[in-house]
Structure prediction request, 663 residues.
Amino acid sequence: MEGIVTGNSDDRDRSSMSRRRRIAALVPTVLLARRNVSRATARSTLAVVAVVIGVVAVGAIGTGGEAFKQNQVAAYEGFGGTATVHPVVYPEAEDPNRNFSDAEVARMRRAAAGATVIPVVQPFGSLVRTPAGETVVTAQVKGIEDPGTFYETANGSVPENWRRSVIVGSRIAADNDIEPGDQITVVVEDELEGTFPVAAVLRPQGFADPLSADQSVFVPVSRFDDATYDEVIVRVDPSAGSVAGAATAIETEFNSRRRTVSVQQVQQQREQFEQSFETVNQFLIGVGAISLLVAGVTIANTLLMSVIEREGEIGVLRAVGYTRGAVVRMLVAEATILGIIGGVIGVPIALGIGAVINVFLVGDPLAFTRAGLQYVGIGCLFGITTALVAGVYPAWKAANKRPAEAFD
Amino acid sequence: MPVDDRPGDGDGNEATTGTPLISGTNVVKEYQTGGQTIRALKRIDFRIDEADSVAIVGPSGSGKSTLLNLLGLLDVPTSGEIRLRKQDVATLSDSERNRERKQTIGFVFQSYYLIPTLTALENVEMPRMLDRTPKKTRDRATELLERVGLSDRLDHAPDELSGGQKQRVAIARSLINDPELVLADEPTGNLDRDTGDQILDLFEELRAEEGVAVVMVTHDEYVAEAADRVVNLVDGTLRAPDTATRADGGHRDRE
Ligand SMILES: Nc1ncnc2c1ncn2[C@@H]1O[C@H](COP(=O)(O)OP(=O)(O)OP(=O)(O)O)[C@@H](O)[C@H]1O
Ligand SMILES: [Mg+2]
Prediction:
């Protein structure tokens, strides 16, 4: 029994010993390789630059893309529980401008019990003039019952019984220097015309807002004579429930015989965005990865040249008893060192570029996401791996040269 | 000198009267180039004993380097037999030949082939760098550099050394594994006469003091005269040399 145990541990000793020896032997290999790398400085530098470009490309595109995504997705925040309802118009319909009536809005309210249902008038042919008398071409006039249920104000407040003033979106206010208290003129063809005091300016809402509040001037819906609505916003507090249920309920109510309303959830738009973003981002990262492949080719080329130059020297290594494996390891180590240097230089540059992009898109230089950092890591690893793989062929070629070539 | 720790030394097997260090019978070496066969060595016999001193002379292209490659186990003959001590080298695997070469044979080249990124000392250590005996290797390398008169140049890079100094580093390198045979291809070819003399003296010393056999290829009659035996290679065959008649030195090289 004891004998068997001893035998086993001997075996283990020997195998772990040989592994340790092999690892230890890597140190002089790496020393030789490192010295060789520093030999052709210009050539090594170019190879390193190629890796750096690749690592930076993948890393910066990755983190930058993630920052862009964060920035875009942030715009959807707050609209997660929101859906829009539009009438579906068929070409053969008598009235191509079919709108929702009060009755229909009431049906929606009933169907989507618990949800906030906000009818919106979006008239054609509207016009907004600033206090200075300039026409604001980008402004959209919208009639709504109470924007305060949906939006927060940045300046001023929505009056209790809102009838006589208007509320202005952030972009319109900023671009035209409009503040609460200013008088602006609103004209809607065939509907209303007048000068109204500005009661409040809204907070910026971003592009995901289904009502584009930033570009809008809100007028009390009571100002419009005929009460028909172009669009209805349905809102469910995300903490209370899902807007999907309300959306389904409305669709069931209206579309059972024929599809008469179209319900769109902002959440779905967000998912669509994320999907198409992933595709574009992956494509860009692929382009970055190609630059790493080019780096690999550069390294292979560098090493091939270097191996041809050092043919005699490598012959001597073989002559003095270096095995093929030892020569391969040394040359692959050279290539890998180039890759590692490229990675070590490339990662901080990629992170730096990522930080700058973060400042612009997210407002915080350190707003790296996990995925963004992963891309930097992947870029670095891929760079090193490419370099290593690129070293294999020249190394194998050099090691298989007849050692005899050292003799003239 | 730690020559004595050479494995197998002193058990009488390698005695001059017994097994030769390396010997060849009917050795043919052919090269294939572009459908053409070049016969570089045409059925030659040779024998090298311990502490032998042999010069191989002959015109360019006569097969001197080819013969050296075979002696150094860097290449295998196309036909014929080469024995290292009693072992037929054809029966050795690639890695076994590699190991034998490392243990038994040192190499010195006309163009030195020092590794430019390593210091003189590291160049001498180089053949043993992958062995895990750094202390022993360093001591031995230092000792060898002292021995070739370069104790003040240990940390110099090769391009900071003269040709003669480089060749002395190369000789020290060839001795790091305590070889029994040193093969040198025109070791004085790039050196002036005085420096060449120093190198030859060094080889002679090694042979006398450590029993290392030295086989040297040369174009130079003067260098050849320093050897005990001269082997004349002409067009791939061995000729009895007309000038240096003593060259056969008691061994019979069969024609
Ligand atoms: N690798 C090779 N492939 C093909 N032919 C070769 C090769 N090496 C040598 N030869 C040929 O073999 C013959 C002997 O060459 P070798 O190098 O042994 O000559 P040498 O005596 O060393 O000449 P030199 O004094 O010029 O160095 C020559 O004809 C040469 O062209
Ligand atoms: Mg030659």
Summary: Chain B touches chain A at residues 65, 68-69, 72, 74-75, 94-95, 98-99, 101-103, 107, 109-111, 113, 115-118, 126-127, 129-130, 132, 173, 177, 185-186 (CB under 8 Å). Chain B has one domain: 49-74+88-246.
